[in-house]
Specification:
Blueprint (H helix, E strand, L loop, with lengths): L1 H8 L5 E4 L16 H29 L2 E6 L2 H4 L8 H21 L4 E6 L14 H4 L7 H11 L6 E2 L3 H11 L3 H16 L2 H7 L1
Parallel strand pairs: 1-2, 2-3, 3-4
This protein binds NADP nicotinamide-adenine-dinucleotide phosphate (NAP).
The site of NADP nicotinamide-adenine-dinucleotide phosphate (NAP) has 14 residues, from loops.
Family: Belongs to the short-chain dehydrogenases/reductases (SDR) family.
Organism: Oryza brachyantha (malo sina)
GO cellular component, one term: endoplasmic reticulum
């Protein structure tokens, strides 16, 4: 923390985007992965984001302005469960709760904290998904997603999903019974977990 605080001390950080994240080791039963893999995931998805935010906030508080954008995931906010990617969904739930609470905590200090929760974006992270998912009309390109995401910084509530396609999918999932979503995600992730080639791509 000391090194981080020192590094940002002289910099006027206006906008912090905590984007780094990992899904590795991908879809598998919790007991099948080395526990170190889950620790690594928590370190990148939650601990790093917390530390960097804590390091940048003092300067923003002093200047009474700033925006913090934390990239969460619809997997934890729009879906009732995320079986076989349990740890990923759980780490992203942390991101959402962390952001929503900071949004309230820092609003009076002129700092806008937000969690952006996308569904699928066709990045390296989802290279292991099957064709149907990658080519789905609800999967957006990184460029399109980034354009939409930038437009939401400093606007809207504590939790948002910048892509119109993702918001549409969010509405559709809200209309589906939770048991059906549970079944669908489990089935999809089981299929991914059984294909060695795809697991490699996720890694
Ligand atoms: N793609 C999706 O469908 C999707 C959906 C929901 C949420 N998200 C979230 O969106 C964010 C961006 O993911 P992406 O889709 O762009 O995935 P990506 O293509 O795999 O990119 C992940 C990014 O995280 C960085 N990163 C990973 N581990 C790191 C570490 N230990 N230290 C520093 N940087 C590290 C990577 O840096 P390097 O390039 O240097 O490895 C890369 O820039 C993540 O938080 C992800 O969870 C993605």
């Amino acid at each position: 923390m000391a090194a981080l605080r020192e590094a940002v001390e002289e910099v006027d950080v206006g906008v912090l985007v905590n984007n780094a994240g990992v899904v590795k080791p991908g879809a598998m039963f919790l007991h099948e992965a080395d526990v170190e893999a889950w620790v690594r995931m928590i370190r990148v998805n939650d601990l790093a984001l917390t530390k960097v935010t804590a390091a940048v906030l003092p300067g923003m508080v002093e200047r009474r302005r700033g925006a913090v954008v934390n990239i969460g995931s619809a997997s934890s906010e729009a879906m009732p469960s995320f079986p076989l990617c349990t740890m990923y969904g759980a780490t992203k739930r942390y991101v959402a709760k962390f952001s929503r609470s900071l949004h309230v905590e820092y609003a009076s200090k002129g700092i806008h904290v937000q969690c952006q929760a996308p569904f699928f974006v066709a990045t390296r992270m989802v290279a292991g998904l099957d064709e149907d998912m990658r080519l789905s009309p609800f999967t957006v390109s990184p460029d399109a997603y980034a354009r939409a995401a930038v437009g939401w910084i400093g606007h809207g509530g504590a939790l948002c999903s910048p892509s119109v396609r993702h918001r549409l999918l969010w509405c559709l999932t809200a209309a589906v019974p939770e048991s059906v979503l549970d079944w669908f995600v489990l089935r999809s992730h089981l299929a991914i977990s059984k294909l060695p080639k795809r697991i490699e791509a996720w890694e």
